[in-house]
Design brief:
The chain has twelve helices and ten strands. It is of the alpha/beta class and 307 residues long. Keywords: Signal.
Amino acid sequence: MTLPKNLVAAAAGIAAATVVLAGCGSRNPLDSSGASTSASDTVTVGTANFAESEILGYLYADALQDNGIKATVKPGIGARDAYIAALKDGSIDAVPEYTGNLLQYFDAKATAQSSDEVYSALTKAVPSGLTVLDKAAAEDADSLNVTKEFSDTHHVTSLAQLAGLKIPIKVGAPPEFSTRPYGLPGLKSKYGLDATLVPINDGGGPITVKALIDGQVQVADIFSTTPAIKQNGFVTLADPQHMILAQNIVPLLARKKASAKVTAVLDKLQSILTTDDLIAMNTSSTTDKQSAQTIARNWLDKHKVTA
């Protein structure tokens, strides 16, 4: 990709991006606390250790490169604690995130529930030095699932019904489920359920799915866009107490790297991305065994992201 060669070109790029951003809301990427980084600086995009996060990471990096911004990907960093620490120490500059879970990470007492409410609260909860860009319509939430056999046998279709079963409930989920508001603490406080965690660190992937099918766990935390839910006929339990918040895709960035050009590119991508896109890309990963790089490139070839 051709990078800006002089200050005139860089200034022109920033000016153009500023025009693009004029109607994008109240966030000003050039405010006094924010982004003075030029588009010629490399942006390192980190990801969590599951397929969808890696696909999104390559989407972000490739879109930036397509627009003349040097970008690299550092995939599979781990859980939220690990990649946010990497953001803070400068090991990475950006990471794809989910609005509700990120809000609860920064503010465990948050009461927002709807998509817009969660995003608004998140923009206020993000700590100094970090920022979130525009949220996408695309959403992928944690969902708690049981097999159809379990649902039919115990007449369970809602989280509210689990505690009344009076049987031990094991939940297959990532290790952080033990402390997150949407995990064991939420099941206890909102539904009166004393569940036991079986930690499975694959982001609701094939190991988690197998544990549910084999009966090693009764409930599994699987992302809502995972094809395995429909493929295996799992029953996603209703969440009447809204323990799991709206989970729109959102980029989390080190504020110093959120230049006008970077912001314009990623906001444009976010404005196009849909939940159906996530389902299709996850299917390409799990069923077709395509790499995250290939899936991201194919999507971008169909959806031109130009800012």
